[in-house]
Amino acid sequence: MITIHKGHIFHIAGAPKVTQAEQALAWHPDGAMAVDERGRIVYCGNWKDLPASLANAHIIDHAGCYIMPGFVDTHMHYPQVFCGDSYGGGQLLEWLNNCIFPSEALLADPEYARTAAIEWCDRMINSGTTMGLIFGSAHPHAQDCLFETARERGLRIVCGRGVETVAPDWSKQKSSEEDAIRLVRAEIEKWHPLTAEARKEALQFVAIVPRFSLSVTAKTLKALGDLYEEYRDRGVYFTSHLNENARPKTGEIDSTKEVYKVHSYLDTYDGKFLPNSQVGGKSLLGKRSVLAHCVHCTDKELARLAETGSSISHCPVSQFFLGSGTMPWRRTVAAGVNISIGSDYGAGDEFFIPQVLNSCFKAHISEATPVGMDPYPTNDQSVALHPAELLFTGTLAGARALDQEDRFGNFDIGKEADFVVLDPAKCQTMGMTLKHMYKNPDPKVARDAHMFAVIMLARESAVSATYVRGRKLKASK
Ligand code: GUN
Ligand code: ZN
After folding, report:
1. Can you tell me the mean pLDDT for 458-476?
2. Distance (Å) from CA 348 to ligand 2 centroid
3. Which sign, positive or negative, has the C-alpha torsion 135, 141, 146, 148?
4. In CATH, what number is assigned to the domain containing residue 325?
5. In whole numbers, what is the pLDDT of the chain averaged over residues?
6. Which domain holds residue 202?
7. Does any domain span residue 317?
8. Nearest Cα residue to atom 8 of ligand 1
C-alpha cells in the first residue's frame, strides 16, 4: 500500500555540493510525498501534480506542518547523555578530566547503561535525528544496550566503542592493547552488517573509534589501521576528533604533536604516526571517515581530507562551549571537504539539529571580523549562510559523510523516506512569526526568508513526528 504525506515539503534535491544547495532547493508549500510499503519514496512534489495512479493511496494530512528530511547528526557522545553543560573549569582537556571521564565511568553499571541507552534513543526520536554517528562507551554491555534499543525503535545509528589505551585507571575506560582490538572486532562481528545484501537493508552500523590520538598509543593506531583495512570494504566506519583545541603548549593539538613528534595532527590518523611523521601503519582516512571539529586544520590537512574523501563533522555549539574557536567556513569549503553537522552532545548542549544550524549561522556570520579595526577589513571571512546551505549541512551532507547518500538525506525518488514533521502550532515563537512576518513581494526572497525562519526559530517542541524508512518512530516518553 502507498501512503501519501501531505504538508509543506522542502529538501535539497539531487547530489549538489554545499555551494549549489540554493539551486537544488525543492520547495512545495502544498506538497505531497508518496511512500511505498517498503518505505521508499515513489513521488515527491506538488499535491496538484500527484499522478493519477496514486489517487487511491492512503493519505496522512500533516496540515499546517513542515515536512523535511530527517536530521543527520555526525558527531555525538552516547556516554555523555547526562553531561550537558558540565562545568570543567577550563577548556577541552580540563573538561574531559574533571567532568567527562568520571561521568562516562558510570556506564560500567549495566542498569545505568540501560537508562542511558533508552534516554539517548528517546532524545534522537524526539528531536527528529534519524541517523547519528555516535561515539560509544568502552563497555560492551553499554554498547549492546544502545544497539538493541536503536534496533527495537528502528533508528539509524553508526556507533563504535570508544577506544582508549591511554587513560587514567580510575576512568574505567582503559583497555589493554590486546583487549582494545579484540573488543572492537567483537563489536563489528556482532552488530555490523557484514554482507553486501545485509548492508542494503541495515539501519545500524559499527565504527572504529579511537577517542582521539592522545587516548591511544602508536601501537593501537597501527592495530586499528590493520583492523580497518580488514573490514573497510564491508562498510565499517572510522571516526575521531581532529584539531579541536589549540591552546598553546598544553592544549590538544600541541600535546598530540609533542607526544607523537609528528608534523601534523592528521598524520596520526593517516598511518604516519611515527616520529617525523614516518609511516607506521595503514591510514584510517577514506569515504566513510568522519573527523569532528577541524577548527585549526592547516591547508595541507584540509587538502588531505578532501583527497581521501573523508568528511568533517562541524560542531559549532560545542566549539562555543569549550572555547575551541570556529571552523573557518570559506577556507574549508574551498578545500573541497564535505562538511556535515554534529551536535557533539555533551560538549554541545543541544540535540535538536536546527538549533545547531542556528549556531552555525551565527558562528560564521561572526567569523574573523577583527574587533576595533577597519569595519570592512579585507580579510573579513564573515559569511551569511543561505538557509539552503544550512539545510544541506544538516541533512544531505550527513548522508554523504556516511556514504549513504543513495539511501537517505533528501526526498529523491527511490530513497528511503526518513523525515521529520514540524508543527509550528507547537512552538509559539515560530508559529506566530511565520504567520505574521513581513512577506516580501519577490517570491524567491519570501521563500528564503520563510525557510530561514523555520530553521532558525524551530525548537524541539515543534517536532510532531519522526519517520525512518516510512515508519513513525515511538519514543518511550
Ligand atoms: N576529544 C576527546 N574526547 C572528546 C570528547 O569527549 N568531546 C570533545 N568535544 N572532544 C574530545
Ligand atoms: Zn566529540
Report:
1. 98
2. 9
3. positive
4. 3.20.20.140
5. 96
6. 71-367
7. yes
8. 347
